[in-house]
Amino acid sequence: MAARPPGGGDTEEPEAIEFGIAALDARLDEADVSFPATAAELRDALGDQEVPYDAQGRSIALADALDRVPKREFENETTFLDAMYPVFDEARREERGVIASLRDALPF
After folding, report:
1. What is the Cβ-side half-sphere exposure of residue 29, based on CA atoms within 13 angstroms?
2. What pTM was estimated for this model as a whole?
3. Beta-carbon-side half-sphere exposure of residue 71 (alpha carbons within 13 Å)
4. What 3-state class would DSSP assign to 51?
5. pLDDT digits (tens, 9 = 90+) for 53-62
């Protein structure tokens, strides 16, 4: 016999947490940005907001993230997001620490 799932009347799904490229993409949609664009134009349009780069809510200032990208001009939004991905990935890896790295190395 199976147990009934807990009730509570709340059928709404929890909100998704946006971070990294998804969070930056959402900010682009809200800002007045047109492509092609330079890093300076993007900084002006988006401001110096913090962009979360992991599910724990750690974030990086957009100006700092743009400074880490060697490319200064972006043909379209996809090119910009592709250039920003390694910045968020590197920030996640830097923050993980030794214990998390060891955990990832274990086979279970």
Report:
1. 6
2. 0.71
3. 17
4. strand
5. 888 888 999 9
